[in-house]
Amino acid sequence: MNLLKVFEKQIRFVKIDKIVIPEEYPKQVVELDKLVALANKYKNAPLPVLCSPDNSLFVGELYLRILRFAELVKVPCISVDDLSLEQIVILLKEYGETDLLSIYELIKFMKFLHEEHGLSHQELGEMFGISRVAVTNRLRLLTLPYDVLYGLVNGQISEGHARALLALKKEDLILYAYNKIVEKNLSVREAEQMVREVLGRQKQSRKRSIDFKAEVDSTLNRIILTFGSAEDMQAFIKKSPLAKKLVLKNKK
């Protein structure tokens, strides 16, 4: 299918150096010989580059890099906001047959179709050939830190590993667990077990003893408790029914 002909009314030719790749975009790592082969294959830019209205790249980071490597000055560009749902489906099919889209970009497309075109998770599942639950799980992956998405895009971890990391919620814990998975080449089951252990340690740390010291103020006939931190004081207030009857101070 000649996409440039099909979408000639929406296509605008943009200088390739004007198309901006967002900083949070996890790039695919490609060996030089493969990049050369792809540049020879796509040097005539048979596919339009998918952008936002401000010329920031929407999806197709590898394709854009290929066109830059082929030294194209201008490339055909389409704003996704100008496309109907039917036209987006056509583009998805054509891009899908090239293997140019990463898993991150496919999920980004899912999110766009859900938020901008109102497709349900069930409808997205039917479109992408996966279950409704799989769509829901995939969309949640976009909340993961850049390093994890980069690893997912480049095969350092699988979707199963990424889903396991979601349970940790906090970015520092997620990155800690991700690095352990890569370093030790853990299976998905081993990663899930490690996540459970990390969560268990977190739960135990929340049960730690409260840091405080007690002083008796005999002149005013009262007890003053001084806490090591605001967290210690709040923990004491929550746990002790006597908290309201005592003078509480946070150590400065």
Description:
The chain has 252 residues and is an alpha/beta fold. It has three domains: 152 residues, no CATH class; 54 residues; 39 residues. 51% of the residues lie in helices and 13% in strands. The strands form two sheets. The chain has a four-stranded mixed beta sheet. The mean pLDDT is 87.
List keywords for this structure.
252 residues, alpha/beta, 4-stranded mixed β-sheet
Q: Runs with pLDDT <50, length 5+?
A: none
Number of domains: 3
Gyration radius, to the nearest Å?
26 Å
How does the helix and strand content classify structurally? alpha/beta
Number of helices: 12
Helix content: 40-55%
Morphology call: elongated
Run of helices and strands: HEHEEHEHHHHHHHHEEHE
Overall average residue pLDDT: 87
Report on the biggest sheet.
4 strands, mixed
Query: Span from first to last CA?
Result: 70 Å
Number of strands: 7
Topology diagram in text:
Elements lengths: L2 H4 L5 E4 L16 H11 L6 E3 L5 E3 L1 H9 L4 E6 L5 H12 L6 H15 L3 H8 L3 H10 L4 H8 L5 H8 L4 H14 L3 H19 L5 E6 L4 E6 L2 H10 L7 E4 L2
Parallel strand pairs: 2-4, 6-7
Antiparallel strand pairs: 1-4, 2-3, 5-6
Concise summary:
Helices cover 51% and strands 13% of the residues. With 252 residues, the chain is α/β, with parallel strands linked by helices.
